[in-house]
Design a protein that fits this description.
The chain has 31 helices and 31 strands. It is α/β, with parallel strands linked by helices. The protein has 4 domains: 65 residues, no CATH class; 296 residues, Rossmann fold (3-Layer(aba) Sandwich); 217 residues, 3-Layer(aba) Sandwich (Dimethylsulfoxide Reductase, domain 2), CATH 3.40.228; 113 residues, Barwin-like endoglucanases. The radius of gyration is 25 Å and the shape is globular. The two termini are 21 Å apart. About 1% of the residues have low confidence. The protein binds ligand MGD (2 copies) and molybdenum atom. The site of one ligand MGD has 32 residues, from helix 11, helix 20, strand 24 and strand 25.
Length: 755
């Protein structure tokens, strides 16, 4: 059948990267900034004396490599370094009601906010406010709360270690452990699942390990878009002949073929390197089943007498092997095939490659964590690696692809709602106060408290909390229930416009910009996905002379809120070395912080598993079985499809840079639903039909959104739509019960054709 021609939907046949990436970078630069400044600026990204790229958390070779060309890094940098400005005049000309009609793309594209602004209900506009008046008002409202737990302190992962640490200390001295953060929506399944399994909630590989690995399994992540610098690494591995098995319901172009813009031969000859040696289009939510299938095949071979396990490692370093393998033996292949959508033979091929590899890396992202069984998914990956001792040897380990450029660092310096007695004792020693001992709120609990009217003040260190969260109807209402929302941000977003009683926007310096305090220019520090901590120093002239740094703003709020504070806020922000000394006092892993940060490339935080040291309760790594295969067996065999939510190539979370998703062949629009030809036929739909997507979670309100269904190479039974447009379909509490991560990537839905 001839396919209908749908506006803005074309095939994209070129490889990822290559000339398309160069053209897109030139366009991003031209649109956002004065062209002359751009090359210089981009050259400073991820250089020893430059700033850390705010795009992603993938490390750079010793931070001294020549500039690595990266389209989406360039977009992140130019989006921040834009010449466009949101001034008091802009706010005077646009009421909040009017701005609410604009798309997320339009809102941020107005540019950088230049002045602190406070909402004025009489005119329904934001009006300029003096910094000190803003701080005083925030302090007054916070002090007026009957209970400090009625305030929520949200962190988005772009904040530096220094800012996040001050935020941690301020809120705890204020008297709460309410620390919702973006990590709760992202890698919380890693932060909860891995400590139980291997004793630390972080990845164990280093960049060098990719030079020594024999096999890579890449599950549920899309590096061509979200971790573009990883493409250089995968490209090298592929050219070295390392098999790369991809598990992803969608055929993502960069995981199929990639042309490295730094490779003159590929560029000149328009050629590309195949990345995935085998591409497994696992069903949405089918990863645990696929992993169990691979492990079942390995165990069957071991049971048949083959020497395929690292028995010495298992005996010396692990617990729970027998119960774990017994569960695998009991799990029928038919169930594994049904839940994963993959054939037994295909999984046995992966198992065969796995047992022949002496050093395997498994990398994974949101396709694994944002599920009802996210924690178990992560633990199955950890277990697969344990079977052959793939920890603490060169070329092996687990590699979670972190989200925001410093989300991992934020965690390390204390952004967590869980009270940690060791840290609290150190805080008491370093600052002379003891934080409260009750459990605080994570992101979902914080939003629930706002919805229920139990939380009245929200202070956001970056991000766009309500738009990132599930259930837009409820989350927007949560914002509107607040007495006061305080936003430390660079750009205008929808969370600023969902106003309860009062709202204040405090514009911050971006990472690319010079941060000068009374003792001179300051550096901040960040931790990448591989636990390397390094310094970052902005070089650009700030977008406005009225901006302040995140640490300075937090100190300002703290001094206005806590007149009798035990913390020398002025002293700390005068010289960020002093903040780092305090971080070291509270977190001893940062020993000699200020010295080591001055070495090129910084330093690596200790990671037990790399030395085969396991900080679990038993002192050993744990095989944790996952009994069952279906995320929600109640839904099997019905007309229900599983919806996953995706990022486009022109997007950074809720920040929409543009309306194209080049590699998936979508141009100038985001209102599409990716669906297989088979499901189109099964649902009596045609490519290009307008459909209603209706949530089908038992016992939940059946919300709906409308999108245009387009035929795409996606696993049958699975469909995809863009985040945040589809967030309303995810109920607030539809989450992984162990980690609290919203199940953004496995939403049961039904489709209905709009006539
Ligand atoms: N340019 C850019 N860079 C970014 C971001 C951005 O938005 N834009 N966001 C940053 C942040 S905060 C994060 S957390 C990371 C996100 O980076 P990723 O983890 O790559 O995030 P997603 O794009 O949400 O989804 C990844 C992939 O999971 C696949 N997938 C969906 N459901 C499933 C499933 O059930 N199983 C499997 N195996 N795969 C599935 C999708 O097809 C998609 O290819 O990137 C960071 N870097
Ligand atoms: N359906 C669905 N929902 C999801 C996801 C999904 O895959 N599907 N992914 C989830 C994930 S992984 C994450 S991490 C969250 C993201 O949630 P958030 O981190 O809250 O959201 P962002 O969109 O990254 O935040 C954008 C805002 O950050 C501000 N900003 C940018 N740079 C800076 C800076 O340097 N300092 C400060 N202070 N502000 C700055 C800008 O004003 C911008 O408007 O969303 C989650 N939501
Ligand atoms: Mo994230």
């Amino acid at each position: 059948m001839e396919k209908r021609n749908i506006p803005g939907v074309h095939r994209y046949d070129a490889p990822a990267g290559g000339w398309g990436a160069l053209r897109a970078t030139a366009k991003a630069v031209a649109e956002q900034m004065h062209v002359a400044e751009a090359p210089l600026l981009l050259l400073r990204t991820n250089k020893p004396d430059g700033f850390d790229c705010p795009g992603c958390a993938w490390p750079d070779k010793e931070h001294t490599s020549t500039f690595q060309f990266c389209e989406n890094g360039a977009k992140a940098v130019t989006w921040e370094a834009t010449k466009k400005r949101v001034t008091p005049e802009f706010f005077a000309e646009h009421t909040v009601a009017e701005l609410l009609q604009q798309s997320d793309y339009e809102l941020e594209n107005h540019g950088r906010i230049t002045h602190p602004m406070a909402y004025d209900p009489a005119s329904d506009t934001y009006k300029p406010v003096e910094w000190d008046d803003a701080f005083a008002r925030i302090g007054e409202v916070l002090r007026g709360l009957p209970d400090p737990d009625m305030a929520e302190f949200y962190t988005s992962g772009r904040a530096s270690n220094e800012a996040a640490f001050l935020f941690n200390i301020f809120a705890r001295e204020f008297g709460t452990n309410n620390f919702p953060d973006c990590s709760n929506m992202c890698h919380e399944a890693t932060s909860v699942g891995l400590p139980q399994a291997i004793g630390i909630g972080k990845g164990t590989v280093s960049l060098e390990d990719f030079d020594h690995c024999d096999l890579i399994i890449a599950m549920g992540h899309n590096p061509g878009t979200n971790h573009p610098r990883m493409m250089g690494t995968l490209h090298e591995c592929a050219r070295r002949g390392v098999p790369i098995f991809v598990f992803n319901p969608l055929r993502e172009r960069a995981l199929e073929r990639f042309a490295d813009p730094q490779n003159p031969i590929e560029m000149a000859s328009f050629s590309a390197t195949p990345i995935a040696s085998t591409y497994h289009q696992v069903k949405v939510g089918g990863d645990a089943a696929a992993l169990k299938g691979i492990m079942k095949a390995v165990i069957a071979r071991a049971d048949a007498g083959e020497n395929v396990l690292d028995r010495d490692f298992i005996a010396a370093h692990t617990n729970g092997f027998d119960a774990f393998t017994e569960d695998l033996r009991q799990t029928p292949w038919a169930a594994i095939e049904a839940a994963s959508g993959l054939a037994r033979g295909a999984l046995e091929v992966v198992a065969d490659a796995y047992v022949r590899s002496n050093a395997t890396i498994v990398s994974y992202g949101m396709g694994v964590t944002q599920h009802e069984k996210g924690t178990q998914n992560v633990q199955q990956i950890a277990a697969l690696l344990l079977l052959r001792g793939n920890y603490g040897k060169p070329g092996a380990g687990i590699c979670p692809l972190r989200g925001h450029s410093n989300v991992q660092g934020n965690r390390t310096v204390g952004i967590t709602e869980k009270p940690d007695p060791l840290m609290f004792a150190n805080v008491e020693r370093a600052f002379g106060f003891r934080p409260p001992s009750n459990h605080g709120h994570d992101a979902v609990k914080a939003m629930q408290a706002m919805v229920d009217g139990k939380a009245k003040v929200l202070v956001c260190l970056g991000g766009n909390f309500s738009v990132a969260m599930p259930d837009a109807d409820l989350s927007y209402q949560g914002m509107r229930n607040l007495d006061l929302a305080v936003h430390l941000n660079t750009k205008l977003n929808r969370s600023h416009l969902l106003i309860g009683k009062e709202a204040i926007i405090l514009p911050v310096l971006g990472r690319t910009e010079r941060d000068v305090q009374v003792t001179g220019a300051q550096s901040i520090t960040v931790e990448d996905s591989m636990s390397m901590v390094h310094a970052s120093r902005g070089k650009l002239e700030p977008a406005s002379e009225h901006l302040r740094s995140e640490p300075a703003i937090i100190a300002g709020i703290a001094m206005a809120t806590l007149p009798a504070s035990k913390v020398d806020w002025q002293g700390l922000i005068a010289d960020y070395d002093r903040i780092r000394d305090k971080i070291e006092a509270v977190y001893p892993d940062f020993r000699d912080y200020n010295t080591r940060i001055r070495h090129p490339g910084g330093f690596r935080l200790p990671l037990g598993p790399t030395e085969r040291v396991w900080h679990t309760k038993s002192g050993k790594a744990e095989f944790i079985p996952f009994a069952g295969l279906e995320e929600d067996p109640m839904l099997a065999g019905t007309d229900v499809l599983k919806l996953t939510t995706l990022r486009s190539h022109d997007q950074y979370n809720t920040t929409v840079y543009g309306l194209d998703d080049r590699y998936r062949g979508v141009f100038g629009r985001r209102d599409v639903l990716f669906i297989s030809e088979r499901d189109l036929a099964a649902q009596n739909l045609e490519h290009g039909d307008l459909v209603e997507i209706i949530s089908a979670i038992p016992g939940q309100e059946h919300k709906r959104i409308r999108l245009t269904a387009i035929a795409h190479d996606i696993a049958p039974g699975s469909i995809g739509a863009y985040y945040p447009e589809a967030n309303n379909l995810c109920p607030l509490t539809y989450q992984d019960p162990q980690s609290g991560t919203p199940s953004y990537k496995s939403l049961p839905v039904r489709l209905r054709k709009i006539a």
